[in-house]
C-alpha cells in the first residue's frame, strides 16, 4: 500500500468517525485598537476555536516591528475560548506599533491578523488611585500615583469623591499640587456610616485622567436623639421621653432620659432605661425633691458611644405656697393643674398694696375697688373658710401669690371635666361629712383633696352675708356681661356655673401659672 493511499484512508476515518479530530493550534482574531494615547492603548481579540486542545494563555503581541510574536512584548489575558481585552502600556508617543492577537495550546501558537496604530504625541495623564486609609466618621486619607504626564505638564492633581459611582472633578475633590509621582489627599466633610467612591485625577493641557475607582465606608456615628418636653406629675415625680431619629449605623442598645439639678446631665447622673432602637419613647422620672427645677436630656447609646438631646427643664410640684401675708396653703395636683388646697385669705395684693377690709353692708354694696371681708365680719371664719373678695380684687390680677392666678372660666371647666363633668364633680370636690357642710352633704367624697367648704357669700345689693354651711361660691377671672363664678350646694353633687354683679363677695382658689 502506497504512502499516499494510507494517508487517504486515515483522513476518511477521521472524517467518518464521530468525535475524532485533528489537534491543531488555536484560531484567534485581533480586535481594533482604541483609546489610543501617547503611552497606552486598548485592544484585545477573540479565540474562535481552541484547535481541540485547551487554550492555556491568550493575549496580544505588539512592538515597533512587523509580525510581533510571543518572543517579544506581549500581554497575558486569560485562557480558553472567547473574547478578551488587552491594555497596552509603556508605549512611546508618536510611534507606529504593530499588534497581533495570539493564543497558545499544546499544539502551538495561533496568531490573529496584524493591525497597526500610531500613538499620539500627547495624552491625558496616566495614574492609579490609592486605597483609603485612616477612615473616621467624617474623613479618610487617599491619594494616587501619576506614572505618566501624557507628554504635557500636570498642572493639577488630587482625588474626587461621591456617594455615586465614577466621581469626577465636578464632584467633591482635593487639589494636591502638580507634576508626576505619588501624592496624598485628605478627604473631609464626610457623613458617618456612608459608602463613598474615590478616583485620583490629574490634569494637563490634553484633559483630565482618572485612576481606578476605589470605595470605602465611613465609620458609624453617634445616634441622633431629641428630648421631649418633660413635666411634673407630682412633688417627687415627672414624665418625659424623647425620640431616636437615627441610630447612626449601629443599633441603639439603650435609650432613656437622664436628669440632674445641674445643666446638661449625663448617664452618670440619675437616668431611666427605656429599651433600644429608633423611634419615640416615654420615661417616668422619680426620686425627685418638691418644688425643685431639674434639667433633663434624652440619651441614646450605640457601639460608638452615647448621644444626648437638648437640655430641657421642669419644676416639681411644691408642697405648699405662701401668700403675701405669709399664709401657707397646701398644693394639690388635679390632672395637669396645680391648685391651692384651701381658700385664699390674704389681705394684701402681691405688690404689697392693702386690700380694703369693708365691714359695712352699704359700703360693701357700693364698693368699686378691691375689697375683702370675713363672713359675718368674724376673723375666725376667715381661718376656716378664707376671705370673701369682691370681683374688683380678682380683676386686679394681683390677688394670688406671684406665679399663681385666679382661675379662668376655662380652667374651672378643665377641672370639672377632669372630675367627670358637672355631676359628680361637686361631690368629688366637697369635704366629706357635716362638720362644715349642712346635712345631707350629697355625694361628698373629696377624692380630689380639694376640700371645698361652704363659705357662703356676701350679697352685692345690700351687703348681707348668706349661706354659710349651705353653699360654696368661687370667683373665676373671666367675665361676659358680668363675671363668671362656680357654685357647689350641700344637697347636690354637681358643680354649677353662673355669672353675677362684681360687687358680690365670694371665695377664691388660686391655680398655678
Using brief descriptors, characterize the structure shown.
513 residues, mainly beta, 5-stranded antiparallel beta sheet
Provide a descriptive summary of the structure in words.
The relative contact order is 0.07. This protein is 9% helix and 37% strand. Strands 10, 11, 13, 14 and 15 form a five-stranded antiparallel β-sheet that branches. Strands 19, 20, 22, 23 and 24 form a five-stranded antiparallel β-sheet that branches. Strands 3, 5, 6 and 7 form a four-stranded antiparallel β-sheet that branches. The radius of gyration is 47 Å and the shape is rod-shaped. It has 513 residues and is mostly beta strands. The chain contains six helices and 37 strands.
Amino acid at each position: 500500500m502506497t504512502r499516499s493511499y494510507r494517508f487517504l484512508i486515515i483522513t476518511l476515518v477521521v472524517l467518518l468517525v464521530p468525535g475524532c479530530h485533528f489537534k491543531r493550534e488555536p484560531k484567534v482574531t485581533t480586535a481594533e485598537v482604541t483609546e489610543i494615547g501617547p503611552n497606552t492603548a486598548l485592544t484585545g481579540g477573540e479565540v474562535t476555536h481552541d484547535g481541540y486542545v485547551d487554550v492555556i494563555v491568550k493575549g496580544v503581541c505588539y512592538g515597533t516591528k512587523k509580525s510581533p510574536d510571543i518572543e517579544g512584548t506581549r500581554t497575558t489575558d486569560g485562557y480558553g475560548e472567547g473574547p478578551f481585552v488587552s491594555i497596552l502600556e509603556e508605549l512611546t508617543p508618536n510611534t507606529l506599533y504593530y499588534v497581533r492577537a495570539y493564543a497558545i495550546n499544546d499544539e502551538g501558537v495561533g496568531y490573529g491578523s496584524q493591525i497597526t496604530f500610531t500613538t499620539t504625541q500627547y495624552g491625558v495623564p496616566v495614574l492609579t488611585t490609592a486605597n483609603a486609609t485612616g477612615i473616621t466618621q467624617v474623613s479618610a486619607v487617599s491619594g494616587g500615583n501619576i506614572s505618566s504626564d501624557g507628554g504635557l505638564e500636570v498642572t493639577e492633581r488630587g482625588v474626587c469623591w461621591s456617594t455615586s459611582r465614577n466621581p469626577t472633578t465636578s464632584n467633591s475633590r482635593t487639589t494636591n499640587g502638580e507634576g508626576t509621582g505619588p501624592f496624598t489627599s485628605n478627604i473631609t466633610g464626610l457623613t458617618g456610616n456612608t459608602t463613598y467612591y474615590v478616583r485620583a485625577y490629574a490634569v494637563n493641557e490634553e484633559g483630565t485622567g482618572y485612576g481606578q475607582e476605589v470605595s470605602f465606608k465611613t465609620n458609624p456615628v453617634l445616634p441622633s436623639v431629641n428630648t421631649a418636653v418633660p413635666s411634673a406629675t407630682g412633688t417627687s415625680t415627672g414624665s418625659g421621653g424623647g425620640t431616636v431619629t437615627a441610630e447612626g449605623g449601629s443599633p441603639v442598645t439603650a435609650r432613656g432620659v437622664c436628669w440632674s439639678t445641674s445643666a446638661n446631665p449625663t448617664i452618670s447622673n440619675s437616668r431611666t432605661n427605656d429599651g433600644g432602637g429608633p423611634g419615640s419613647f416615654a420615661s417616668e422620672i422619680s426620686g425627685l425633691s418638691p418644688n425643685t427645677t431639674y434639667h433633663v436630656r434624652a440619651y441614646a447609646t450605640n457601639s460608638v458611644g452615647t448621644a444626648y438631646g437638648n437640655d430641657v427643664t421642669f419644676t416639681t410640684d411644691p408642697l405648699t405656697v405662701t401668700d403675701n401675708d405669709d399664709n401657707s396653703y397646701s398644693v394639690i395636683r388635679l390632672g395637669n393643674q396645680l391648685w391651692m388646697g384651701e381658700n385664699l385669705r390674704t389681705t394684701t395684693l402681691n405688690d404689697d398694696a392693702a386690700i380694703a377690709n369693708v365691714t359695712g353692708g352699704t359700703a360693701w354694696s357700693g364698693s368699686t375697688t378691691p375689697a375683702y371681708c370675713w363672713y359675718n365680719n368674724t376673723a375666725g371664719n376667715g381661718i376656716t373658710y378664707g376671705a370673701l373678695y369682691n370681683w374688683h380684687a380678682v380683676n386686679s390680677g394681683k390677688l394670688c401669690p406671684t406665679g399663681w392666678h385666679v382661675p379662668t372660666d376655662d380652667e374651672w371647666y378643665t377641672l370639672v371635666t377632669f372630675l367627670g363633668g358637672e355631676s359628680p364633680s361637686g361631690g368629688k370636690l366637697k369635704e366629706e361629712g357635716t362638720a362644715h357642710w349642712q346635712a345631707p352633704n350629697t355625694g361628698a367624697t373629696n377624692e380630689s383633696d380639694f376640700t371645698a367648704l361652704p363659705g357662703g357669700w356676701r350679697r352685692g345689693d345690700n351687703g348681707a352675708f348668706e349661706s354659710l354651711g349651705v353653699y360654696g361660691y368661687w370667683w373665676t377671672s373671666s367675665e361676659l356681661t358680668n363675671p363668671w363664678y362656680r357654685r357647689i350646694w350641700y344637697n347636690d353633687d354637681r358643680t354649677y356655673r353662673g355669672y353675677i354683679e362684681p360687687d358680690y363677695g365670694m371665695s377664691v382658689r388660686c391655680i398655678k401659672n
